[in-house]
């Protein structure tokens, strides 16, 4: 399948990354001035744009980070559009995993080649997720990051260090692969791809094409062990730790009083105690490899 220039539109979040969206617009125009773009100022504007998009468009390029991609998912799973990503966020975990680059010419070239593939989409209660969701420390940090006016890797690092001092862990009951267990956890991650962002891999064997969720359970541990647990995770040797376990499943239920969770780094608050996670849909993406 091949796509013409007038069938492509870029959806640009001007607040993502360093706010250098004018550079992106200039690059689009230099590559092919027949390609359109739309600048969205809010989630509400994005929703309206998607609901009223001209049917002539066949490819939507999402310019932003994982949060911007997440804001499109509710529409994407019901759409016949093909999607691509121009990473311009703080972590860009999803884009890194799928091979997208901060290169407008590369993106347009791959779109015009027309090769596509489908990837899984998770549903966390009523919320979609394409990269990583979780409850516990990662959702705690997602909330702290949201409340910080600064963006970028350094802000994540600062909030993570502060979080180690203040976060207490969660008590939860899990039902996974027809087995139930209870315990105290540092965090529980539900991964569709391998990484949070910035090449921080949490689920080394995650595959967004396999129809399965990679669940990462990290049991609560003494704070003195933080550097050792972090090293195990970052070196992708978590399976050698008694505190870290990995599962593959197509559904998991978490019962916990802790209310804060996240999808693709976007913090959310659940009602009630239950968090149900499953593979629910697929979306069609432009392939980045020849």
From TrEMBL:
Entry's Gene Ontology molecular function annotations: ATP binding; kinase activity; metal ion binding
Domain (DAGKc): residue spans on this chain: 3-128
PROSITE patterns registered for this protein in UniProt = DAGK
Looking up SUPFAM superfamilies in the UniProt record yields: NAD kinase/diacylglycerol kinase-like
What is the top-level taxon of the source organism? Bacteria
Any one GO CC term of the record: plasma membrane
Q: What InterPro entries does the record point to?
A: ATP-NAD_kinase_N, Diacylglycerol/lipid_kinase, Diacylglycerol_kinase_cat_dom, Lipid_Phosphate_FormReg, NAD/diacylglycerol_kinase_sf, YegS/DAGK_C
Q: What are the protein's UniProt keywords?
A: ATP-binding, Kinase, Lipid biosynthesis, Lipid metabolism, Magnesium, Metal-binding, Nucleotide-binding, Phospholipid biosynthesis, Phospholipid metabolism, Transferase
Q: Which GO terms describe its biological process?
A: phospholipid biosynthetic process
The protein's required cofactors:
Mg(2+)
Which NCBIfam families would you find in this protein's record?
YegS/Rv2252/BmrU family lipid kinase (TIGR00147)
Record protein name field:
YegS/Rv2252/BmrU family lipid kinase
């Amino acid at each position: 399948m091949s796509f013409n220039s007038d069938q492509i539109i870029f959806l640009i979040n001007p607040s993502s990354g360093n706010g250098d969206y004018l550079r992106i617009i200039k690059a689009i125009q230099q590559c092919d001035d027949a390609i359109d773009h739309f600048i969205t100022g809010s989630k509400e504007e994005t929703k309206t744009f998607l609901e009223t998009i001209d049917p002539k468009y066949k490819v939507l390029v999402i310019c932003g980070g994982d949060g911007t991609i997440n804001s499109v998912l509710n529409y994407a799973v019901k759409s016949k559009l093909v999607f691509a990503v121009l990473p311009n966020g703080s972590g860009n975990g999803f884009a890194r995993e799928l091979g997208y680059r901060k290169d407008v010419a590369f993106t347009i070239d791959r779109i015009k080649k027309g090769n596509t593939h489908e990837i899984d989409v998770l549903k966390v209660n009523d919320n979609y997720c394409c990269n990583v969701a979780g409850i516990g420390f990662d959702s705690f940090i997602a909330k702290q990051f949201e409340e910080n006016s600064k963006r970028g890797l350094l802000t994540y690092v600062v909030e993570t260090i502060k979080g180690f001092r203040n976060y207490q862990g969660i008590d939860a009951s899990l039902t996974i692969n027809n087995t139930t267990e209870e315990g105290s956890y540092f965090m529980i991650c539900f991964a569709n791809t391998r990484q949070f962002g910035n090449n921080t891999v949490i689920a080394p064997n995650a595959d967004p094409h396999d129809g399965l969720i990679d669940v990462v359970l990290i049991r609560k541990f003494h704070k003195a062990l933080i550097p050792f647990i972090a090293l195990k995770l970052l070196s992708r040797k978590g399976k050698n730790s008694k505190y870290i376990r990995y599962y593959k499943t197509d559904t998991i239920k978490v019962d916990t009083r802790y209310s804060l969770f996240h999808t693709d780094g976007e913090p959310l608050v659940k009602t009630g105690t239950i968090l149900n996670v499953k593979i629910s849909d697929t979306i069609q993406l432009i392939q980045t490899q020849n």
